[in-house]
Structure formats: C-alpha cells, structure tokens
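Practice problem. Given the sequence and the SMILES for nicotinamide-adenine-dinucleotide, write out the predicted structure.
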Amino acid sequence: MGNDKGMHVISLPALREAMRQLVRGFGSTPAEVDEVVDNLIGANLRGHDSHGIGMLPRYADAFLEGNLQPNAHVRVEIDAGALLRLNGQSGFGQVIGREAMELGIARARELGSCVVALGHSHHLGRIGAWAEQAAAAGLVSVHFVNVVSRPIVAPHGGSDARFGTNPFCVGIPFEGREPVILDFATSVIAQGKTRVAHNKGELVDPGCLIDDQGRPSQLPRFTVVPPLGALLTFGGHKGYGLALVCELLGGALAAGLTTHDHDNSKRRVLNGMFSILIDPARIADRAAFEAEAGTFLDWTRGSAPREGFDDVLTAGEPERRYLAERTRDGIPVDVTTWSEIVDAAARLGVDATQLRRAAGFEA
Ligand SMILES: NC(=O)c1ccc[n+]([C@@H]2O[C@H](COP(=O)([O-])OP(=O)(O)OC[C@H]3O[C@@H](n4cnc5c(N)ncnc54)[C@H](O)[C@@H]3O)[C@@H](O)[C@H]2O)c1
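Answer key:
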C-alpha cells in the first residue's frame, strides 16, 4: 500500500480481501461476494474507477433502503426462443448481468442470435464486462442501457437533467486478435467520473456540464451535491439521440421502466439492458469476416499519430493497457473514496479496522 498525492495505491490481493470483507456485510453468499468484488475491482483494473469499488457506498445505501436485494437471481419472464425477457429482481447487477448473458449466449449458440431484454437489475456496472463475456463465447453483442436513478443528463438544448448516463456498448470478437469492446456513457463523461473529480477536488473539462441555472460550468459539484445541474450528452444532438434510444430500448422496451421525474429520494441505481447477441459464423463466412475486419483495423491503426497523441488505438485497448499496469503496480484509490468505503463498512456492520488492515493500512 502506498500513498501518493491524495491517492492510496493498494495491491490487487489486498484490495480484493478488503472488499470481500465489505461485501460480506450485505449478507451475500461467498460466490456472490467474489463475483461483486471481482467485477468492481475489474472496472478499477481497466481504468474505470467511476464503476469500481467507489460504487460500494452507494450500493450500501441502496441495500439499507431495501432497494438492492442480495442473493437474487434472474427470473425468466418470457422465453420465446431467440427472445428472452428477464427480470433482475433488484439483485446485484454483477450477478444478474452475468446470468442474463449466460442465458443469451446459450440461446445465440443454439439459434444463431438472441435478443435479451433485461429489466430491474441493480447497477450493472461496467457494461463492457457483458460484451467481454459474450466475446469470450465468440459472439458479437450490442447493448443499449438505461439508468433509473435521479436524472443527471440534460437533453440537447435543455437546461436540466432528464435521464441518466445511458451507456451504449458493442463487443466484436476475433479468433486471432483481441476483441473490439466499445463501451461508453452517452454523457460527455460518466457521472462516476464527476464524482471522482469532485472527490479529488479537480475541475472537469469545459463542455461537460451545466450548473443549476443551465449555464456552462466546470465544477463537478453540480452533478454531486445540490443545487444540481446536469451533464451534457456527447456529440450534441447525436449523443442525445443515442441516449434517447438507450432509454427507449433498455428502459421502455426491456425493463418497462424509464426516468420521467425528478425523484432524488432513492439511492438505488436500476439498469435496463436491451442486448442483441449474434454468432458471426452463422451470418458470415467467419474467416472472410475476420480477414476483412483485421485488414481494416490494421489500416486504421496505421494512421500516424497527430500532434498531442501518442498512438492510434482501437476500442478495448486502453482498458487492456490499464489492466496490465494496475494488476502489476496496484490500484489507485483516492482518499475520499476510501473514507466513503470505510464509512459504508460501518453502516453495514463490518469491522472497519479489520478492513483497513486487510488493505495494508496500519490499523
Ligand atoms: N451501469 C451504468 O449505469 C453505467 C452508466 C454509465 C456508464 N457506465 C460505464 O462507465 C464506463 C465508463 O464510461 P465512459 O463514457 O467514461 O468511457 P470512456 O469515455 O472512457 O470511453 C471508453 C470507450 O472508449 C474507448 N477508448 C478510450 N480511449 C480511446 C482512444 N484513445 N482510442 C480509441 N478508443 C478509445 C475505450 O476502449 C472504451 O470502449 C463504461 O464501462 C460504461 O459501461 C455504466
């Protein structure tokens, strides 16, 4: 464990053990404890601290309010062959997401494709994890996700928040090379990133958010503490359009639940996810597809980096770079996030001294 400029750097085994102690406080089975911890730390390892262990205090609040149900599993509501409608029963998204993908993967292998409409899952975390699961099974996947929590993103041209950061994700696997995993929030930056910036006392880039009067601001507090402003969608009306489609497909169609009020009272985060899984070998000559895709990816990567850039990358690559680095060097956790985690431990009845020790801190 090290401490550098307001950051603790915690080794992977130590962080894993400390977070296991915390998640046991939810009353989860040992398997669920491991799954929640590994998924969240997996987001930190891939550079997405916004969707890593820093979510646990929020999960603790949702659980204590009775809106996150540990040890819940996916319930099949409609099974129509290549169409599955699933209910996540407010369970940990780390378990529900994996179970939903397992069902969809089995169907897509059998039938060539499967549409999975998943509703009422608690926070599904980093959506790329589900595209990676499908890609590891050799499947292409597309995911449209809505977020039912307090609204945080303004519609293009609007002055206040009307929906969530609605992520969109695509996974494309190849036999001879790493998959393409495109996975992003439709807001200019993920909300968790404004929380991390707020915790670190940093400004966000211009063009990311508006204040409570609808004026441009760089202060992340306007998305963290009242009076609240809103994040903007990426790419103006284009990102707004994609966010809208995520709400209509992931929310209205898959979950039967959209954001349509300013209710700030609940801490839970529900995700609806509309996923399309496709076996590429059933719709194309796999070798020809891979050869053509590989040629295009190499051609794109061949562009010389322009000023201000070190590299031309492919979606999925930055996360793999972080994964290698952080697995080796440890995971940075800012001091505010860490203290929120220690507070959450106390709320869950977990011994905070033991937890700190497990993470490598002096008691
Ligand atoms: N569950 C939820 O409710 C929820 C809501 C919003 C976001 N999220 C998650 O938050 C995470 C972070 O989202 P974000 O919008 O901050 O992501 P981001 O802005 O970091 O973009 C990530 C995507 O862009 C690619 N990328 C990054 N730099 C690149 C480069 N230089 N060249 C080429 N590709 C590059 C990455 O490989 C990845 O596919 C995602 O995993 C998303 O699923 C979840």
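Check your answer against the key. The mean pLDDT is 95.
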